[in-house]
């Protein structure tokens, strides 16, 4: 657990404390920005391998998440936010399986919380811009056509969901998956090392523990991509709910 709360590198005991978690995040952010800028500056009509991978990911997000959820018109407006969010979270999640980094940037609560609050601001702003504050709150908390006594229970619940539950659930889901994945990797890698160095007959089963560690490693890559996808598609759904016309 100490890996999630490392000692300070700079500014120990201040609000500006800088530790290994922030270092990992800065490295990932710098790598992503540099790679994207280089690929954009060298973009060709016939793409190379790196450009093809990025374009495939952009098309995946644009087609699977944005167009299917928001449609063409609204999707075009929110595409920069959602594509940026997906790449940002994907890169931070994958840091946990990069040798030398070995820790997802989203495995400490600050970054998942920031991404969730960013999403909250975007969908609330979109809803208020379209309907005004009162109209947006009515749209989100009081759907038409229900018996009036139901609103006494429904409105507080829906209001709490809009202002708290949505972004809190985004934060907790992403954080919990990244923390669990890191702990599983550490446990199985540590188990393999412990069996190898045990000096007993347990050495014989160390390859099985190693195989499990490799399997968990691959599974963690899948979870990193899946959580970036889930976070982004939920962000798109919340935007759609905030801006959808009444039927």
Describe this structure in words.
The protein is mostly helical and 247 residues long. It has one domain (2-243). It has five helices and two strands; from the N terminus they run E-E-H-H-H-H-H. The protein has a two-stranded antiparallel ribbon with strand order 1-2. Strand 1 and strand 2 form a beta hairpin. Helix 3 (110-141) packs antiparallel against helix 4. It is globular and about 75 Å long.
Provide the descriptors you would attach to this structure in a database record.
mainly alpha, 247 residues, two-stranded antiparallel ribbon, hydrogen ion transport, single chain
Please specify the SSE layout and strand pairing:
Blueprint lengths: L7 E3 L7 E2 H22 L7 H46 L15 H32 L6 H49 L9 H38 L4
Antiparallel strand pairs: 1-2
Helix pairs in contact: 1-2, 2-5, 3-4, 3-5, 4-5
């Amino acid at each position: 657990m100490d890996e999630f709360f490392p000692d300070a590198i700079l500014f120990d005991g201040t609000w500006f404390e800088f530790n290994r978690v922030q270092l990992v995040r800065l490295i990932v952010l710098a790598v992503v920005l540099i790679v994207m800028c280089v690929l954009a500056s060298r973009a060709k009509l016939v793409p190379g391998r790196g450009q093809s991978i990025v374009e495939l990911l952009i098309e995946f997000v644009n087609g699977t998440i944005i167009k299917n959820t928001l449609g063409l018109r609204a999707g075009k407006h929110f595409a920069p936010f959602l594509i940026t969010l997906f790449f940002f979270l994907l890169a931070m999640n994958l840091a946990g399986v990069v040798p030398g980094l070995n820790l997802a940037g989203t495995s400490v609560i600050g970054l998942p919380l920031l991404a969730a609050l960013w999403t909250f601001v975007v969908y609330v702003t979109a809803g208020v811009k379209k309907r005004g504050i009162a109209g947006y709150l009515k749209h989100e908390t009081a759907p038409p056509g229900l018996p009036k006594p139901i609103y006494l229970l429904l409105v507080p619940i829906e209001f709490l969901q809009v202002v708290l539950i949505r972004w809190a659930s985004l934060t907790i889901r992403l954080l919990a998956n990244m923390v669990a994945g890191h702990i599983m990797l550490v446990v199985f890698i540590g188990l393999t090392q412990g069996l190898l160095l045990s000096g007993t007959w347990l050495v014989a089963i160390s390859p099985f523990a190693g195989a499990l560690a490799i399997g968990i490693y691959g599974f963690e890559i899948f979870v990193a991509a899946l959580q970036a996808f889930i976070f982004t598609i939920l962000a798109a759904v919340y935007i759609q709910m905030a801006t959808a016309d009444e039927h």
